[in-house]
Design brief:
Number of domains: 3
GO molecular function: ATP binding; UDP-N-acetylmuramoylalanine-D-glutamate ligase activity
InterPro entries: Mur-like_cat_sf, Mur_ligase_C, Mur_ligase_C_dom_sf, Mur_ligase_cen, MurD
Keywords: ATP-binding, Cell cycle, Cell division, Cell shape, Cell wall biogenesis/degradation, Cytoplasm, Ligase, Nucleotide-binding, Peptidoglycan synthesis, Signal
CATH topology of the largest domain: UDP-N-acetylmuramoyl-L-alanine:D-glutamate ligase
Catalytic activity: UDP-N-acetyl-alpha-D-muramoyl-L-alanine + D-glutamate + ATP = UDP-N-acetyl-alpha-D-muramoyl-L-alanyl-D-glutamate + ADP + phosphate + H(+)
CATH superfamily of the largest domain: Mur-like, catalytic domain
Largest sheet: 9 strands, mixed
Radius of gyration: 23 Å
Main location: cytoplasm
Structural class: alpha/beta
């Protein structure tokens, strides 16, 4: 087990006792750092609270007293906690460092990192890269926003392993020295503006993935996304573009027949089983990383001819009386849903709705031509209903539960139709996570 080296903070406030917060509090405590943990929603009876206290960690729940930051050297916060939080706001004004747990990774001496970020496609791309490493028998660990606390993974790694890490804008906003050997920027779209407030702030958070890179590192980026092209213009890393439109020679690209890396054919497009143009971009990014890491075309082909997708991302669930059901619960913004809609030529019954973050959904309208019915739920139902009406969709139903949504969608569908859960919204108005929402969808489909 690795130990933190040259860690500059003697006393740390860990803010938020969700999965990552509890892991970080334990990790710091194991490494001799004085830890105070705080969670507004936790209770005295919570198992995490009791376990941390039994290990000598001071835990405060149910309030955010400002006295907690009087003598701390830094705050490590749960990525989802906004900077308007009273403790964070006060700490920033006092120049107390506010970090996220991925900033711990450099202090474990982990340098071989592939970091993947973007508005959409992170999980699919991360999983593809991980599978390519595994198939090549390369020592590898999976970490980050994909469900494995990155600092906890780093603590267990050996010197031969590469960390493949999915990184959110929330995580990247809280770094100082962290840098990946290979950074991947997939796309940029107006997302999480309730947290970042402006597109510029959101883009700057994403740009942190390459801010500490040097000329010895690599930056894999989407050359088809002008926002990304503009964002990386001052990057120091070696730039490796990918494009599904072509027009590049120094990266990964495709034509109608095949995918190429720097002029070398890698795989025939017809052999790839993952559907959708957005997934083609994810595949190009993954191939870029694999080729930079010396992974063979044979290994890449083996993965791409068998990989059908990740859970909750355009995941085929089941065919029921000729209707194909797809779970795309991870589509928590408009761009993700437009890409899901673009993946099918069949008629679609779309299940959508969720947390209202203040945006409208007019950008969906050009992609609704194949949608013959809408089944809506959650806070954004009224907004999405207007979009459906503007798109000329006659069958629009508002429901309260996922089980109702699935049953109604089945009633509105015919053989050969696609029933697609692609909410275009976060899940937090009705569900704890998008995974819970997707699992509820799949459970309801299997009940049909």
């Amino acid at each position: 087990m690795r130990k933190l080296k040259n860690f500059p903070f003697a006393k740390v406030l860990v803010l938020g006792l969700a999965k990552s917060g509890t892991a970080v509090a334990n990790l710091l405590n194991r490494n001799g750092v004085e830890v105070v943990a705080n969670d507004l929603k936790a209770t005295e009876d919570d198992e995490n609270v009791q376990t941390l206290r039994s290990q000598g960690v001071s835990v405060v729940v149910g309030e955010h007293p400002l006295s907690l930051i009087e003598d701390v050297d830094a705050i490590i916060k749960n990525p989802g906690i906004p900077y308007e939080n009273v403790l964070i706001d006060s700490a920033v004004k006092q120049d107390i460092p506010v970090l996220t747990e991925i900033e711990l990774i450099p202090y474990f001496g982990i340098n071989q990192i592939v970091g993947i970020t973007g508005s959409n496609g992170k999980t699919t791309t991360t999983t593809l890269i991980y599978e390519m490493f595994k198939k090549a028998d390369a020592p590898v660990s999976l970490a980050g926003n994909i469900g494995h606390v990155a600092s906890e993974v780093a603590e267990q790694m050996d010197d031969k392993q590469t960390m493949i890490a999915e990184l959110s804008s929330f995580q990247l906003l809280g770094i100082d020295t962290f840098k990946p050997k290979v950074a991947v920027l997939l796309n940029l779209f107006e997302a999480h503006l309730d947290y970042h407030h402006t597109l510029e702030h959101y883009q700057n958070a994403k740009a942190n993935i390459f801010k500490n890179q040097t000329e010895h590192d690599y930056l894999v980026y989407n050359a088809d996304d002008q926002r990304i092209v503009n964002l990386i213009k001052d990057a120091d890393a070696i730039r490796v573009p990918f494009s599904r439109k072509g027009g590049i020679t120094n990266g990964t690209y495709c034509d109608e027949e095949a995918i190429y890396f720097r002029g070398e054919k890698v795989i025939d497009l017809a052999s790839v089983v993952l559907v959708g143009e957005h997934n083609l971009e994810n595949i190009l990014a993954a191939i870029s990383v694999a080729k930079l890491e010396g992974i063979s075309n044979q290994v890449i082909e083996t993965v791409l001819t068998t990989f059908t997708g990740v859970t909750h991302r355009l995941q085929f669930v089941k065919e029921v009386n000729g209707r194909k059901f797809y779970n795309d619960s991870k589509a928590t913004n408009i761009l993700a849903t437009t890409k899901a809609l673009s993946a099918f030529n069949q008629s679609i019954i779309l299940l959508a709705g969720g947390l209202d973050r203040g945006n409208d959904f007019d950008e969906l309208i050009p992609y609704m031509s194949n949608v013959k019915a809408l089944v809506l739920f959650g806070e954004t139902s009224p907004k999405l209903r207007k979009v459906g009406e503007a798109s000329g969709i006659e069958n629009i139903e508002l429901v309260d539960t996922m089980n109702e949504a699935v049953q109604k969608a089945y009633q509105l569908s015919n053989k050969e139709d696609v029933v697609l859960l692609s909410p275009a919204c976060a899940s937090w108005d009705q569900y704890k996570t998008f995974e819970e929402r997707g699992n509820m969808f799949m459970e309801s489909v299997h009940k049909l």
